[in-house]
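Chapter review: from sequence to fold.
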Amino acid sequence: MEVPCVRVPVSEGETTRQRLADADLVDPDFDIVVEDDTLYVPVTDPDAVDGFDVVTHDAPERRTPTTPADLLGFEPTYERLGDIVIVDEDDPERARDIADAILESDVRAKTVVNRASKVKGETRVRDWDVLAGSETETVHREYGHEFSLDITQVYFSPRLATERHRVVEQVEAGEHAFDMFAGVGPYAIPMADASANVVATDINEAAIDYLRENARRNGVSDRVTAHAGDVRELAADYEGWANRLVMNLPHSAGEFLDTAVRLAADDCTIHYYDIQHESEKYSPGERAIRDAAEPDYDVTVGTRHTVRSYAPHEYNVCLDVHLTRA
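The token string follows.
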């Protein structure tokens, strides 16, 4: 059937699809079509598409997939990380019923796991109950990049994809970007792909091993320097180096602000992540940054951004703050 489609090169396909999906413009009734080196993404409202070439193209109607909800009679909550499906259920029997339904449905999954603990320890990992399959290593794709990881060894949240992309879109070619708590590289790799020179650190040695692998996988090894260890012990080697700092350690990033100031160049943007009560989401972080940076730097808060709800009455927030040496 002839339907309106966004036409892009295949190399830009995943990034384009993600942007259209975030804007709720991908038409679920038709399949995405690949012809030669061109991708056609059916869209629901061509007039709402901004920045892409919209054409009419033949796209087959999509077969209605069998979902876990079709089999269970209720809509389960789960998220996908590569070909691992993650559920979060307190009732083990309900968790196993959901896992069975996921495997019987059209959801692509080789392993289904249930969260068995909160994120814990310096390395920020959690325990998992493996409900189906056995493989805990996967490759996750996000905005055109691939990230290899093992969920039992490293922390990774697919829920933060849009937030990471928001930050990466601010990166300019040639700048010095420092990811202080880098994990497997979901900020560092795209920043390097945007032609920044990136230094990435993490206390979790397994995460840094994966980050180096992911730099190779995404073709940016020449622009990524990765260090396993406490960023405070590396600060002397990069004092005054960073034009951009990512501080994605929401519960304790404030403990590293003195280090961030040491790393900051004369002009530096800090992306500071925090967890705060709804009554005062941003001001504690702002005060902490000013206490650490002033009077050596002038501090300007550019963006106060709520990333997501974290717990009842608590929010994960980000402050984009610019430091200019006084």
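Two observations follow directly from the output. The first strand starts at residue 2 and ends at 9. The longest helix spans residues 92-104.
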